[in-house]
Amino acid sequence: MSKPQVGPRAADQTVRAALLEALRSPRPLAALELSSIVRISQREVADHLEHLQRSLAGSEERLVVEPARCNACEFEFESRDRLSRPSRCPKCKSERIDPPRFRVTAR
Questions:
Q1: Contacts of 96 by beta carbon, 8 Å cutoff, 6+ apart
Q2: What structural domains and CATH numbers belong to the chain?
Q3: 3-state class of 37 per DSSP?
Q4: pLDDT tens track for 50-100
């Protein structure tokens, strides 16, 4: 997969503003992709995404989350509230999990 054509974050741009700009791409992005675009650690991305999700609640946009999926048994983590990647599948106990993907769309 190729990265979206988003340049590095400007010095005067906040992390969340850069994250929001990256999330407006047509292709959903995983936390690892977002962390490389915005230049923060992958662990920080989930915290910023939760804040963005709350911030967008009163706007014309919303954060769309494509749930994580187990590669072994195709279990989909639909009811998971946390935005971070699950460590293993509750059904088959596999640790081969595709991470959740995110994007921002209009309501």
A1: 70, 71, 72
A2: 15-106 (1.10.10)
A3: helix
A4: 999 999 998 999 999 999 999 999 999 999 999 999 999 999 999 999 999
